Amino acid sequence: MFTGIVEEVGEVLAVELLDGGTDSRLHVRGPLVSSDAGLGDSIAVSGVCLTVTSLAGDGTFTADVMPETLRHTTLGALEPGSRVNLERSLRVDSRLGGHVVQGHVDGVGTVRSRTPGPRWDDVVVELPRDLARLVARKGAITVDGVSLTVTDVGDDWFGVSLIPTTLEVTTLGAAAPGTRVNLETDVLAKYTQRLLETAPATEDHS
Q1: CATH number for the domain including 165?
Q2: Looking at the domain assignment, is residue 93 inside a domain?
């Protein structure tokens, strides 16, 4: 479990393709998130929950990426030098600074437009229509691992405003139009949708 509050921007050092390229192994430099990590710990890499499989003394960690993850997230496009948002899993005695984030990406969106403001940027992200129903104005959404508040929403897009801190300490500060981003909708919206889909039909006794 995570909060969507990015702790540092890491760098992909190497990508190993395994099993004929169907899955991969990432080597990521992240001194802060690696400082107290142990084997089997979870680290969110640009919004994707990955398991630490090895650690090095130089502030790097390794994680395996399964075929399902490569198909449904942007991690398959990572290469040496790519910058990624990193967050350690939430401790039960920590403050929930963002919102409840699982690290389970629902789909990939694309930055449609970006409008600079006096101290912030207004960004519009295009997303699959089936995910748009789970996004609400003033609700929460995770974009590349960053917890954001939705400012507006349409049939296939939503808007967010990036404050100075987000611009400075996450990869979203450099996300130009056309950039593909991992999206995770609010878990409450997903459970609500599932309950509505599986609710028994109400009998009409009139």
Answers
A1: 2.40.30.20
A2: no
Strands (E), the chain: 8-18, 23-29, 42-45, 48-55, 60-65, 83-88, 107-116, 121-126, 140-143, 146-153, 157-162, 180-185
Tokens, residue 44: 């969110």
Task: Flag whether pLDDT at 205 surpasses 60.
Answer: no
Question: What is the model's pLDDT at position 206?
Answer: 56
Q: Are 127 and 157 in contact (CB under 8 A)?
A: yes
Looking at residue 139, what is its pLDDT? 93
Number of domains in the chain: 2
- Both 83 and 111 in one domain: the answer is no
The backbone torsions φ and ψ at residue 164, rounded to the nearest 5 degrees and listed phi first, read -50, -40
Count of residues making up the chain? 206
Q: How far apart are CA 76 and CA 73, in angstroms?
A: 7
Structural domain includes residue 203: no
Q: Is residue 1 part of a domain?
A: no
Give the tens place of pLDDT for each residue, 106-151: 999 999 999 998 999 999 999 999 999 999 999 999 999 999 999 9
Say if CB 161 and CB 195 are below 8 A apart.
no
Look up the domain containing 144 and give its range.
107-194
Q: Which residues are registered as beta bridge partners of 116?
A: 121
Q: Where are the alpha helices (DSSP H) in 37-155?
A: 67-72, 129-132
